[in-house]
Structure formats: C-alpha cells, structure tokens
Amino acid sequence: MTITQNAPAVSPPGTPAPTAQPAATPHTGRRTVAGRSKAGAGNRQTKDFLELSRQVKDAGLMETGAASYLGRAAVLVAGFAAAGALLATLGESMWQLAVAALFGVLFTQVAFLSHDAAHQQIFSTGTRNEWTARIVGNLVVGLSYGWWTHKHSKHHVHPNTIGKDGDIEAGALVFVPEDAAKRTGFMRWLGRRQGWFFFPLLTLFGLVLHYKAAETILRADKLKHRGAEAALLAVRVIGFPALVIWLLGPWLGLGFLAVQLAVFGVYMGASFAPNHKGMPLIPAGVKVDFLQRQVLTSRNIRGGRLTDWAMGGLNYQIEHHIFPRMPSPNLHKVQPMVRRFCAERGIPYTEAGLVESYGIVISYLNRVGLGKGGNPMECPLISQFRAR
Fold this sequence. Notes:
Elements: E1 2-4, E2 10-11, H1 41-58, H2 66-89, H3 96-118, H4 126-141, H5 145-157, H6 177-181, H7 185-191, H8 198-202, H9 205-219, H10 226-248, H11 250-272, E3 287-288, H12 290-296, E4 300-302, H13 305-310, H14 317-322, H15 331-344, E5 349-353, H16 354-370, H17 380-384
Parallel strand pairs: 4-5
Antiparallel strand pairs: 1-5, 2-3
Helix pairs in contact: 2-3, 3-4, 3-11, 4-10, 5-9, 9-10, 9-11, 10-11
C-alpha cells in the first residue's frame, strides 16, 4: 500500500483546524502525530481547493459524459443479448451455471451505470439522470433507486463517520470496535472470525440488496414514484426468476439463480468494500474539513485499464469522493492533479493493489472482531478529539 505521507487537519467543534504530521508504515498504515500547523492552514487549504476545482472545471472534466458512456452501454446490451440467447438455447445443461455467472457480472456492470446516473454524471439534466438510474437500477439490477440514493448520499457526506455513514453500521459484519464488543453468542463467535467469512458472506449480499429494495418500496414513509419503482422491481425480482425456472425447470433454475445471486453479491461487495474499509473512522462529533474527510477515509485501487473496467471507475475513489458529479471516465484524468495537490499540502493519499486491498480489509475486520487495537488505520489526532 502506498501512502503519501503528510498531515490531516482535524478540528473539534468551535476550535481552529490543526494540522498533524503522520508517519505511515507500509504494512498497517498506522499514523502518529508529530506536530501541528498554524490555525489559518484550514482556511488557506479551502481556498486552494476552490482553485483546484476551478482548474478541473476549466479542463472540461466536470462536463457530463453521455457520449463516453455509449461504448459501455453498447457492450452491455450485446452481453445481455448473448447471455439471453444462451439461456434460451442451451436447454437443461449444466453450462447454464456459467451463463448464470455471466448474468451476475452483467448485472453488476449495469449497477455501475446506475450509480453514475444517480450521481448526475451522464446527462446534463437531473431528470434524465434520475430516471435513467431508477429504470436501470430497479428494472435491470433489482435495486431501489430511492433506497440507494438515500443511503449513498449519507455515505458521501459522512464517509466512515460513526453513527452517520450507513456503510459502517453493524450487520452480519461489524466495522466499528465498539459494535464488536456488544456481540454475544454466535454473532460474537462470527465477529471474531469475520474477516475470513467476508467473501463467503458476500454471496448473500445480492439477496440482501433485493430485500432492501422491496422493504423500501413497501415500508418507506416517503418514496418518490413508488408505483414506478414497484412495477420495475417486480419485473426484475419476480419476472426474471420465473422466466429462468420456466426455461430450465425448478432444480436447474434454482441452481442458476443461486449462482447468479452469488456472483452478483461477491462482485458488488468486492468492488465497493476496498474503497473505505480499513481506512480511518471519524468519531461522531468530530469536525473534519470536506477535502480531508473525503481523502483520509478513501483508498484508491491500482491496476490499469482492466481494473478501471472491472470496478466501474470506483477504483478512483478519492477523486470520486472529491468530485462526485465527475463522469467516471474522467476520473483517471484528474487523478494526477489531485495526487499532486495532496502532496503539496501534506494530505495522505492512499493507494493499494486490488489483492493487497482485500488483505487489508480482511485483516481489519479480524482485528475489529477480536478487539485487538480497533481500527489499524485510525489517526490518533482524530482519537484525541473524540466527543466526550
């Protein structure tokens, strides 16, 4: 893992923003405090960031990129056409399980497109982006657009912030040491080994996403276009399984759906988890300026064009969190500017290889579950200003 070493500025409510000088080790990324800057550093950094934003906009990198998505969309349409033809013509063959895996990959790739549309990255108008994300997300992927935008918006505003970021709320896995300490019985046993169960549990993640979508449509107090979401989701989570079972019979059909759900869940989870898990947690009540809140809690994944495609551009997580409306095809273009900006101002910029990042996530989950030191990436300066 590569960490550009220099300082985060963290300020509790009502005090000037200090700056710390961390020293990182290549294995754990643990940071220690060596000093502080003058109180005016935070204001200067904010002005500098506004200048960076202006440069990015002048370079045209914030312009919506419908044209840049045409190639991805065409490949996905061709992929679904091929997968559908195989499903319809192979008959009751065990090769259908490979087709199921292909559908799992295609559904995940479509989820990346829905994610980008929800971030207003594709079209110039909010309405087109919203309906693209809703139709693609509900009808093709089987997610609820309303649920996703509510959850994901909170994550972008408060990444890795305890009590505010739903992505680190306790569930089958725990990401916060205090949550692990509350576990008893089987869940405590699982928590102490949760890193090793991370990928096996992801096989159920697709089913959880479908459940959350249905729950939102049925129970959410406020949900825009509930009827449209319900109709679109029903086609995906009822119509598609019914078609598969009709074509393949009950047993092979259920096997097909199990493989498709498992591949979809693992692929989705394996694409999102490396970006934040094992990075610093921000305690509730601690103020961190926008730039450092996004950079300090995010990790980029190295790997070139193949990784860019496989992760839908989410491997540029730092740039995505700083410029959430930037079309994902432009993120690799802005990366040198952001990396240089962080280096000049002493802000840690973290990158890791894909396999390396999974090792970090598994190790982190095990440490949290075992109660050994909590978050290995936590900045002691943040700990100093924990809310009492």
